Amino acid sequence: MFIVEMQSITKRFGDLIANDHVNFQLRKGEVHALLGENGAGKTTLMRILYGLYHPDSGVIKVKDQPVVIHSPKDAIQLGIGMVTQHFALVPPLTVAENVVLGYQNSFVLNQTQIEESVAEAARRFGLEINPKAIVRHLSVGQRQRVEILKALYRNAQILILDEPTAVLIPQEVDALFETLNRLKEEGLSVIFISHKLHEVTQITDRVTVLRDGKVVGTVNTADVTQKELAAMMVGRETFGVSRSEANSEKGAQKPMLELINLCANDDKNLPILKNICLTVFEGEILGIAGVGGNGQRELAETICGVRQPTAGNIRVDGQDVTGKTPSELTRAGLGRIPEDRHEGMVVHLTVTDNLVLEHLDEFTRNGVLDHKAIRQYAGELIRKFQIKAKPNDITRTLSGGNMQKVLLARVLARQPKVIIAPQPTRGLDIGATDYVRQQLLEQRQRGAAILLISEDLDEILALSDRIAVIYEGEIVGTLPAAEATPERLGLLMSGAVKEH
Amino acid sequence: MEAKRFPYQLIKTDTPPFWMRPLIPVLILLTTFLITAGLILTARANPFQAYYYFLISPLSSQVSFLEVLVKSTPLMLTGVAVTFAFATGYYNIGAEGQLYAGAIAAAWLGIVLGGVPAIFAIPLMIIGGFLAGMVWALIPALLKVRLAVDEVVTTLLMNSIMAYIVSAILNGPWRDPNSGWPQSPEIAENTMFFKLIPRSRLHFGFIVGLAAIAVLWFILTQTSFGLKMRAVGLGKPAAQFAGINVGTTTLIAALISGGIAGIAGVSEVAGIQFHLIGDLSAGYGYTGVIIATLGSLNAIGVFVASLFFGLIDTGAQTVSRALGVPVYLGEVTQAVMLLVALGMYLLQRYRIVRRA
What is the DSSP letter of B52? Predict the structure, then answer.
């Protein structure tokens, strides 16, 4: 007896087959994981179920009835709710107002009445939330709870959660899992999209694994180990790259990057970085952990010379580089990997152009480009970094992994003393992620000081020698990797404690 | 409840097939003429006959062929001017005003340099026109770079200001003392551009236009400044991240753009009219925008587009004389062609696929 059955669903985007004859069955009252790498087709399948995409072929049955879902409105009518990573909430409105928005049809809104009915629904599903609270004042975890409540208030019996833990700290994840267990008891069915194995084994009853748009299999969670699931997911037993222990012989370590009382403002000109003090030593990876939006982007931009600090100093290899232009920074030995691949490269220019763009002066004689030297240099980098592209390909046509290789090549070919790597593997598949991490570890081996900024705690734990936690633009603690447990980091990331 | 859907859909592809490239201009021409054929029919003329006068007859005699080159001279210059700006992502719609700034300078220098030998006078006129166009382009460029004021609005409005300045000059201090017409006194003979071919109107400005095309090609493809311009035009944040000074690059490109538009004004005064007059330019500055776009912001494209628009301008007058079709047909054709070309360049990135 299945509450949702998706039979032989196929969806193409151009030449890409996102879903290839996918079969998926959801039982009533279960938490069912959709597991797979980035780009495996998990989100596409669920967007089809929620009416955001239309399948090219295949049948969807809800409660044994074949249905055609044209839009989210149809999906909601069928009792399907979806919570994505990007919340659709109106920040200045209250929780209650957000929950009923677009659902209450009466012209006049009775404030007390809707607050009562929302409070009642929250009680029934065990979602602890104040209906009168303004959404803007809520934490990310609380906002997610509002989104879930919104779906449940619309009588959803099938709840789709798209990577719900990506934005949460460990403690919030625990609270979410409690909620999911409670919903299961109420008879709801939950689809849990994830690529994190430990979460999947912890919370779900069954797992459907997708790889390259195809179903690899559906298994009972209790019957498999994490290792087996990993093998299904990536098609090989072992995966992941992590740091070899005890690389750095302690002792005379040389500080390569020093941030001294660094302050900066955000795009609205409000203080975002508050007295950041950090030192990264030669041959070390310092990981910056934190929930997204706590100043990570601004920190990277400030060090990279794209954003001007309002106070404090930046030193590279002992040399004060505060307020220097990007090209002066590059010359001082700073390797700057941009956070957003599409904004870090001129994607409409060729691969060759992008490879030399940071060092044009070296390829110019009296203002005229030395095309021969440029071709030679680009060809070398393409070979050395295994970039799957021709020199004159427009960068936009490359895959995310290859784009990131172009950026890495541009930066690492200069053998920089210091490397700034913000979110270096975001959106990459496992193969490309491994490649990037491997390159960073090789640079560390060479003696580079690396500042790794990542919202992926697993990545931070796998690569860093030391871990600093950023919360609301402040470094709230710095720990050696050996002492950094997820729980301890979680407390720091939530701003609950400070350690210095 | 299966809704009926159109059985074909457009699917995006990043790389159009190789045979598409040469086909696109042909398709643009055919589609444009299909659309304008409707307009010609409403003017009660035979479209095929009209196209003959439009496209073939100007090329059939030496006189009219040279006229095509004369017409394309200012278009080459304004096309190059606009391309410099657009390639850098600075949308200079002010080439028209910058052209008149250059023309005012030429009309003034053409009298002041009366006794100077042509070999010095003409380069000085060109430099003067370049500087004048540059100065007129400086105000919106500074507003853009320093205060992020939208350049489309400012450059466009500067055109109106310039139109009134020209009118004020011509009706005030520079009104022709002999005829009383609103036109400046005739420039000295030694400052007039020499004719390339005797007894035609084809003048030295055409050579200047070709030189501008060559300079555009050289800067865009062979210099590091050209690569910086294109990087800024195609991705400002990335250019900034890579250490390119976006403000300076934009400012210089905007000034070069204004300067070359100014030379177009010099060329029209010293090569054709010999006076500053109110309708010196038949919207050449605006046509430059169309030419730069149709020429896909590269030198060869701009060259071909300006020759073709010169042909259409000449042809429109022939059609008008021969068949009584309004002469505005030329402008309509140019505008339709721009729209069709934009559509084609967009659509070439898609293919049609039958729904499963």
Answer: I
The C-alpha atoms of residue B265 and residue B289 are separated, in whole angstroms, by: 16
How many CB atoms within 10 Å of residue B59? 13
Of B223, B235, B238, the CB nearest to A367: B223
Tokens of A188: 């709801």
Work out the number of other CB atoms within 10 angstroms of the CB of residue B2.
6
Q: Supply the ipTM of this predicted assembly.
A: 0.83
**pLDDT score of A237:** 45
A306 contacts B356? CB cut-off 8 A: no
A89 φ, ψ (degrees, to nearest 5): -115, 155
Rounded (10°) CA dihedral B265, B269, B272, B273: 130
> How far is residue A403's CA from residue A342's CA, in Å, rounded to a whole number?
9
Structure tokens at B14: 């990043």
For B146-180, the pLDDT digits (tens) are 999 999 999 999 999 999 999 999 998 888 877 87
Which single residue is written with the structure tokens 């994505």? A84
pLDDT at A327 over 60: yes
Class of residue B355 by CB neighbours under 10 A (exposed 0-12, middle 13-18, buried 19+): exposed
Between chain A and chain B, the number of residue pairs with CB atoms below 8 A apart is 88
Q: Are A475 and A263 in contact (CB under 8 A)?
A: no
- Spatial distance between the Cα atoms of B13 and A220, rounded to a whole number of angstroms: 40
Which sequence spans correspond to the domains of chain A? Answer: 2-234, 240-333+416-500, 344-414
Nearest CA to A296 out of A462, A423, A450 is that of A423
Most B-contacting residue of A20, A303, A360, A374 (CB-CB within 10 A), to test interface: A360
Between β-strands A255-265 and A271-281, what pairing exists: parallel, antiparallel or unpaired?
A: antiparallel
Contacts of A67 (CB under 8 A, 6+ apart): A60, A61, A74, A78
Intrachain domains A2-234 and A240-333+416-500 with the same fold: yes
**Which domains, ranges and CATH numbers included, belong to chain B?**
20-43+325-347 (no CATH), 72-323 (1.10.3470)
Q: Where are the alpha helices (DSSP H) in chain B?
A: 20-42, 47-51, 57-60, 62-87, 95-112, 118-147, 151-171, 205-222, 224-234, 236-241, 246-268, 284-294, 299-323, 329-347
Given the candidates 1.20.120.450, 3.40.50.300, 3.40.640.10, 3.40.630.40, the CATH classification of the domain at A240-333+416-500 is 3.40.50.300
CATH superfamily of A2-234: P-loop containing nucleotide triphosphate hydrolases (3.40.50.300)
Per-residue model confidence (pLDDT) at position A493: 83
Chain A residues within an 8 Å CB radius of B228: 360
